[in-house]
């Protein structure tokens, strides 16, 4: 019987549930579950508990998450990322300084109330927000209390003179339940310009880093050698 934690490097384009389903079939086990859902287009650390480790899933949720990503100033979508429908556009005539961007980020650090994207799994009256969105039903989105430990500009932002848009790399450390897409959208609101998240990678979750992570292909290739891809339960503590 396998017991432990798989630190999976989830690829883009698949759901977190897809990964659990594939591993359940591959490992021929029933007791398996993930801690901290990643959106389909987000890659990176997805901790997956196996066997007796599934009892730790709630505790695994409690630890902070760390992300790196790319944001864009100049247009916005209904989903707050580039998979959504464009709903606003504004040409940036004068590029923002890196100091202005970092100053805006600083205003979103701490204990904050955040509105989740309409395309999210947050439930309202027993139904997920994305279900309302797909049915074109307007619904009041609940504000959620989250903690943002850090939100920083990484490297120098880039201005596209042709498109009159500005991209920036960022890093975020935050509590469970934080929508990084919303942090990018809210930064745009502070700077008075539409903003959208272009790319996101989770580099740490539940105390595990992306350097610890393995791919589904790694596991499939070394299926008979679990010590290569299964962390012991004690590694969580």
TrEMBL record:
InterPro entries: PsdUridine_synth_cat_dom_sf (IPR020103), PsdUridine_synth_N (IPR002501), tRNA_psdUridine_synth_TruB (IPR014780), TruB_C (IPR032819). The keyword tRNA processing applies. Residues 181-221 form the tRNA pseudouridylate synthase B C-terminal domain. It catalyses: uridine(55) in tRNA = pseudouridine(55) in tRNA. Pfam families: TruB_C_2, TruB_N. Its EC number is 5.4.99.25. Residues 24-180 form the Pseudouridine synthase II N-terminal domain. It is an enzyme of class 5 (isomerase). The active site is at residue 39. GO terms for molecular function: RNA binding; tRNA pseudouridine(55) synthase activity. It comes from the Bacteria. GO terms for biological process: mRNA pseudouridine synthesis; tRNA pseudouridine synthesis. Keywords: Isomerase, tRNA processing. Gene3D superfamilies: Pseudouridine synthase (3.30.2350.10). Responsible for synthesis of pseudouridine from uracil-55 in the psi GC loop of transfer RNAs. Belongs to the pseudouridine synthase TruB family. Type 1 subfamily. This is tRNA pseudouridine synthase B. It comes from Lactobacillus iners LactinV 01V1-a.
């Amino acid at each position: 019987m396998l017991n432990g934690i798989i630190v999976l490097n989830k690829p883009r384009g698949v759901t977190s549930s897809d990964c659990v389903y594939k591993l359940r079939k591959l490992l021929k086990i029933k007791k398996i579950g993930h801690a901290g859902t990643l959106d389909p287009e987000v890659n990176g650390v997805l901790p997956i508990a196996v066997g007796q480790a599934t009892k730790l899933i709630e505790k695994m949720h409690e630890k902070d998450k760390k992300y790196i990503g790319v944001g864009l100033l100049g247009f916005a979508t209904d989903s707050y990322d580039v998979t959504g429908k464009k709903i606003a556009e504004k040409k940036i005539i004068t590029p923002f300084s890196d100091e202005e961007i970092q100053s805006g980020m600083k205003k979103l650090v701490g204990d904050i109330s955040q509105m989740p994207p309409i395309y999210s799994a947050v439930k309202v009256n027993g139904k997920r927000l994305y279900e309302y969105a797909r049915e074109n039903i307007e619904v009041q989105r609940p504000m959620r209390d989250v903690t943002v430990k850090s939100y920083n500009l990484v490297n120098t932002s880039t201005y596209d003179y042709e498109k009159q848009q500005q991209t920036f790399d960022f890093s975020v450390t935050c509590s469970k339940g934080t929508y990084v897409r919303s942090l990018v959208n809210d930064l745009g609101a502070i700077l008075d310009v539409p903003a959208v998240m272009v790319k996101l990678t989770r580099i740490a979750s539940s105390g595990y880093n992306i350097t610890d992570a393995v791919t589904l292909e790694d596991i499939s290739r070394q299926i008979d050698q679990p010590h290569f891809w299964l962390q012991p339960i004690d590694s969580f503590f």
